[in-house]
């Protein structure tokens, strides 16, 4: 996540709603129109089933209060608008309380195809379908619970488990590999890259391996981890993740397989 942003958080009214402009609604509409055909082809059944449960509007920015009503009925979760940038501590606390933090702004036309910080399209279109599934909801809450028990120095280790599953995970469906993560579902370029690009390294799901794998947020990932079944996330939730982090730290990070970020 960048240290600063050109975007300003939008404020809710007394009913918890945000007044998005017609131009902002049009950006949402065009993002959905661009992304949905690829999602229909390449996303996992789990993600697509979540989309059906939510039935998000395609012609306007959804309201968090609308989504929360459905999520509360399905998994006990809700969505709360937040500024673009929140710290790990607040992020983990919200997850532990079954509240997903959603940036309240939507990207500009200039950032239509890529925005480094998460906006409401990524948060709502990408994340909330998974939160309709009790298993993903439980795993997300576990990440939050462990985050509250971590030392601050462990945050960057723990977040890799979230990054390579909820954000950029893949899953097997029969003989196919499908996109699962929210960052893939909301990215026009990385969705196909993750599933089809022959240069990509697709590794079996392994908690210690994931915790030791560095990543960059500003490029298509060179490495993805592939779940064989969602039950692996449940198994991960029941592990001693604090002990796993300690073991991963002792072993150290893997050498990055991506180039270093150029200094501006």
Describe it for me?
This protein is of the alpha/beta class and 264 residues long. Helices cover 46% and strands 10% of the residues. A hairpin with a 2-residue loop joins strand 3 and strand 4. The radius of gyration is 18 Å and the shape is globular.
List the helices and strands and how they pair.
Blueprint: H1 22-42, H2 45-54, H3 64-74, E1 78-82, H4 88-96, E2 99-103, H5 120-127, H6 134-149, H7 155-167, E3 170-173, E4 176-179, H8 182-185, H9 190-196, E5 201-204, H10 207-211, E6 223-227, H11 231-237, H12 241-251
Parallel strand pairs: 1-2, 3-6, 5-6
Antiparallel strand pairs: 3-4
Helix pairs in contact: 4-6, 6-7, 6-11
Characteristics:
264 residues; alpha/beta; Phenylalanine Hydroxylase; four-stranded mixed sheet; two-stranded parallel sheet; 6 strands; globular
| Helical coverage, percent range | 40-55%
> Roughly how many Å is the radius of gyration?
18 Å
Which structural class should the secondary elements be placed in? Answer: alpha/beta
Taken as a percent bin, the fraction of beta residues is 5-15%
Domains (count): 1
CATH architecture: Orthogonal Bundle
What is the H/E order? HHHEHEHHHEEHHEHEHH
The CATH topology assignment is Phenylalanine Hydroxylase
Shape by Cα distribution: globular
Given as residue ranges, the uncertain stretches (5+ residues, pLDDT < 50) are none
| Cross-sheet strand order for the largest sheet | 4-3-6-5
Query: How many alpha or pi helices?
Result: 12
Tell me the name of the CATH homologous superfamily.
Aromatic amino acid hydroxylase
Oligomer: single chain
- Cα-to-Cα separation, first versus last residue: 16 Å
**Major β-sheet annotation:** 4 strands, mixed
Number of β-strand runs:
6
């Amino acid at each position: 996540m960048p240290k600063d942003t050109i975007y300003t958080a939008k404020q809710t009214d007394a009913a918890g709603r945000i007044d998005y402009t017609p131009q902002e609604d049009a950006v949402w509409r065009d993002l959905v129109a661009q992304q949905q055909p690829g999602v229909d082809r390449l996303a996992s059944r789990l993600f697509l089933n979540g989309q059906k449960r939510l039935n998000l509007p395609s012609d306007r920015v959804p309201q968090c209060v609308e989504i929360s009503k459905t999520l509360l009925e399905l998994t006990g979760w809700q969505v709360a608008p937040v500024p673009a940038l929140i710290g790990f501590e607040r992020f983990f606390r919200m997850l532990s309380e079954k509240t997903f933090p959603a940036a309240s702004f939507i990207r500009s036309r200039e950032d239509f195809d890529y925005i480094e910080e998460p906006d409401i399209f990524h948060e709502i279109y990408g994340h909330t379908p998974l939160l309709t599934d009790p298993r993903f909801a439980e795993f997300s809450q576990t990440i939050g619970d462990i985050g509250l028990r971590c030392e601050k120095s462990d945050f960057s280790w723990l977040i890799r488990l979230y990054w390579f599953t909820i954000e950029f995970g893949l899953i097997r469906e029969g003989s196919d590999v499908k996109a699962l993560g929210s960052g893939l579902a909301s990215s026009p370029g990385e969705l196909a890259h993750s599933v089809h690009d022959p240069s990509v390294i697709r590794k079996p799901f392994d908690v210690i391996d994931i915790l030791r794998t560095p990543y960059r947020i500003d490029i298509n990932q060179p490495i993805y981890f592939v779940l064989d079944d969602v039950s692996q996330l449940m198994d991960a939730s029941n592990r001693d993740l604090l002990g796993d982090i300690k073991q991963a730290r002792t072993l150290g990070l893997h050498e990055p397989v991506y180039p270093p970020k150029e200094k501006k």
